[in-house]
Write a structure and sequence with these properties.
By secondary structure, this protein is of the alpha+beta class. The protein has six helices and six strands.
Amino acid sequence: MSFLIRATAIAALLHITPVVVLVKRPAAVQTLLPGADAYVAREVHLSATDAHRLHEGVDWSPEDGVLVFYGGTAGSTSVGALEFVRVDTPHGPIEVAVGFTPQGAVRGVVVTKATIEMKPWVLEAVAAGLTDYYRGLKPGGEAPRGAAGIASRAGNLATYVAGEVDKGVARALAAYGAFYNHVRA
């Protein structure tokens, strides 16, 4: 019983609210892999060394040490790839889908999940043009700066959550740059 009381107290301190779906994954896939008529999911099981390298680079360890890339094709032509990245925040998790062109540049970003508490902040950040700041970024290039880009047009909480989206985009860029070529057919 004392475990339940401690768990409840910790949850109350963290004040994490339930997660809601802002954009369903199939809709994000269609948005980020336009024109694709076939899709494939490819997993990369990270070695301890690779997982450590990713953690050191972007302060992230994917769940169970597995990266999942989703590729899309139109006929036999690649239209790109995408990855879903979870970012844990003091206000709960958010999920960011990051799509890449066949040339490896960010095609687009969609925030797919957030907590009920963060939902209005996410919507405000997106309405302020947050996702526009990620287009064209490439692995190894400049860091995502969406939060800085919307700071003058959005409130403090929307800018805060934009910084968390920046982290998700940075993680996707690092994973794609380091590991995507290992899984391409």
